[in-house]
């Protein structure tokens, strides 16, 4: 009896406390809403002007693109229409190369070897982990949905397969890490090509069968040869920035500058100023970004082939890719960030909204890199030493969305009996989602690496602060000694000998 009497008031008290808490929060929310003034609304709009304009540009560009599709514009007209978007791409790509070099050099020079080594190891582990997870998600999704079933009769074969061995591809990767010419690396990459060559090979007689027959005509047989054709690898190149080689050089160069201490201060100041100047250029370009994104998206939608044909042939494949990318970008990456940092990932992602929308519009993680820097450093407050190291490397080697897409596409092609499909018509939407996933993975990786490296960064700040204080004290004491010794110039030399 007493037990039941003791439990009832407790249960009732909990319900009452819960109701009181709800009432209090409701009243606080009402007060906040009532206290909002026009100045507050205006300030909120000004603070989020970039994001609002960029999101509006995506929406307007999508509507405009579908509205212009019935007019059947020619390719020339589409090119002219997309010209403002092309200008945005050229502006962003113009800044990528100096931004990667300056940010990596300053980032490596600002850290000691111990801190940079730990940070690099954590970044590599994060990249490998998320890439493996992305590949597994792609494989699981394509096996479950099975988009290649029953699509064989609707597919057509197009193009030719370029034969590339795994060994040559791996060696090309290593060769590109060490470019022989840095200037050439800014616009060319090494790539192994193949050409057919004919070789004359002497015919060796079979001694067991023909030994007795050709015993007397061995000299004549030595002159017999046959022609053999073979694909021989030769050195070649393809157009495009060798980002991997520039990243490796910049990291090594920054590491050396950091170890030079005072002798490397002039170079540190130069690259730091260069990085700051580029970021100010990015701030100017960001005002033009919404207009460029609008015409980029509208132009791509107008340029697409018949949507009905694409949907009929590859609807399930498109759905499979989008489902895989959404699982990785919306569930896995935020969950990974939360488990490591114990922070709300959606607040962090909210600060990245403009970079994600820009990635959706430009379909290039490298072109989005300048805006990603701006969002992480200004909106999310990530340490510049972390962003300057993690983002350029991540934009070069970390491709979660691409890994998921490639794994899924390989199994899909196998499901349609190894037919080489024409993906040119269907790549628009998925390529943009893939780029957005890549940018999101790099950005969350910067937040995770900063959290894991917080102790090294703080200790380096303390050491740097102590060295600056000691340097200032030495300068101050030197000035005091110089002032004291000025009236006693004749005895200055004796003072030095005594020292």
Q: How are the SSEs placed, and which strands pair?
A:
Blueprint: H1 2-35, H2 38-47, H3 49-68, H4 75-81, H5 83-109, H6 113-145, H7 166-177, H8 182-185, E1 188-202, H9 207-210, H10 218-222, E2 225-239, H11 243-259, H12 265-303, H13 307-341, H14 345-351, H15 353-362, H16 365-379, H17 384-397, H18 400-415, H19 427-452, H20 454-485, H21 492-498
Antiparallel strand pairs: 1-2
Helix pairs in contact: 3-12, 3-15, 4-12, 5-11, 5-12, 5-16, 5-17, 6-13, 6-17, 6-18, 6-19, 7-11, 11-17, 12-16, 13-18, 13-19, 15-16, 15-19, 16-17, 16-19, 17-19, 18-19
CATH class of the largest domain: Mainly Alpha
How is the quaternary structure best described?
single chain
DSSP strand count: 2
CATH architectural group of the largest domain: Orthogonal Bundle
Please, what is the CATH homologous superfamily of the largest domain? Sodium:dicarboxylate symporter
Uncertain stretches: 419-428, 467-499
CA gyration radius, whole angstroms: 32 Å
Indicate the structural class. mainly alpha
Largest sheet at a glance?
A: 2 strands, antiparallel
| Termini separation | 93 Å
CATH level-3 fold name of the largest domain: Proton glutamate symport protein
Features:
499 residues, mainly alpha, Proton glutamate symport protein, 2 domains, two-stranded antiparallel ribbon, 2 strands, 6% strand, globular
Would you write up a description of this structure?
There is one protein chain. The relative contact order is 0.14. It is built from 21 helices and 2 strands. The chain has a two-stranded antiparallel ribbon with strand order 1-2. Helix 7 (166-177) packs parallel to helix 11 and helix 15 packs antiparallel against helix 19 (427-452). It has helices spanning 2-35, 38-47, 49-68, 75-81, 83-109, 113-145, 166-177, 182-185, 207-210, 218-222, 243-259, 265-303, 307-341, 345-351, 353-362, 365-379, 384-397, 400-415, 427-452, 454-485, 492-498, and strands spanning 188-202, 225-239. The protein folds into 2 domains: 45-183 and 240-461, Proton glutamate symport protein; 188-239, no CATH class. The model is unreliable at 419-428 and 467-499 (pLDDT under 50).
